[in-house]
Amino acid sequence: MTANTIDLTELLEQPNDRFIPAAFRAITGREPDIIGLMHYAKRLHSGLPRTLVLAELRHSPEGQAHAVHAKSGELDRLVARYLAVRNLPLKSQRWKFLLKTKARVPSEPTFHWELWANDYVVQMNARTAEQALEKAQQASKAAQAAAARQPPHGGERENLNLQRKLDALSTALQSTVSAMQAKGVPDHAVEALRDAADALQLAPPDAASVPWEGRQALHWLARGLRH
User: Fold this and answer.
1) With CB atoms 3.0 to 4.6 Å apart as the test, which of 3, 106, 117, 179 could cross-link to 41 if both were Cys?
2) pLDDT digits over 137-148, tens only?
3) First to last CA, the chain
4) Burial class (CB in 10 A: 0-12, 13-18, 19+), 218
């Protein structure tokens, strides 16, 4: 993987609705996970500075592992200052001593970080649900085609294997929903994932068994994410 250089000022000046995803991509090399997204949205909503979010991401095991691919002397100096002040007995006031920058952080007093995070999670889950549904439909078509080419017993075995895979995917989705709810993720934010898990338990998982309205809603949600 080619190493990139992180521009600390550019990261800090990201619009509010792009800051956390941009920070995760730059510092960890991936999209934000739901728990991490909600965690940092709550911290920012409580008034903590963006520099603290960047320092914590960089100092995390994942951030340190990815640092070789995302170099930044400024970010490393920020982490050094973070380690120097994090144990000061000043509660949230200690973060005022983090590294000062010339970045012009967007000022949007009415921006609600937690509401934004909830909407982002809903969109993420809608995309995950649509992808799961598409995979189930593709697997169903493949199984039907294989069954048509094989003797009856061979087709039954193929369908059984398919159902086992779909059951495993449904179980994984349900476990994800439970873990997210245990971390305090709102119920409406996991509704799409729960519906996808339930849909995967239906046999056969054919596109015709999914209501047209549901497919259309998922289509428009996914289309919105791509624009």
Assistant:
1) 117
2) 888 788 777 767
3) 27
4) buried
User: Helices (DSSP H) in the chain: which residue ranges?
Assistant: 8-12, 16-28, 34-45, 50-59, 61-66, 73-85, 113-149, 152-182, 191-200, 212-225
pLDDT tens-digit map of 161-186: 777 777 777 777 777 777 777 767 77
Q: Say if CB 75 and CB 98 are below 8 A apart.
A: no
Closest CA to 42 of 34, 97, 64: 34
Residue 17 token pair? 């609705």
List of residues 6+ apart from 197 with CB closer than 8 A: 170, 171, 173, 174, 177
Binned at pLDDT 50, 70 and 90, residue 189 comes out as: confident
Contacts of 47 (CB under 8 A, 6+ apart): 92
pLDDT tens digits, residue range 79-136?
A: 999 999 999 999 999 999 999 899 999 988 899 999 999 999 999 888 888 888 888 8
Quote the DSSP letter at residue 187.
Answer: G
Cα(105)–Cα(49) distance, integer angstroms: 10
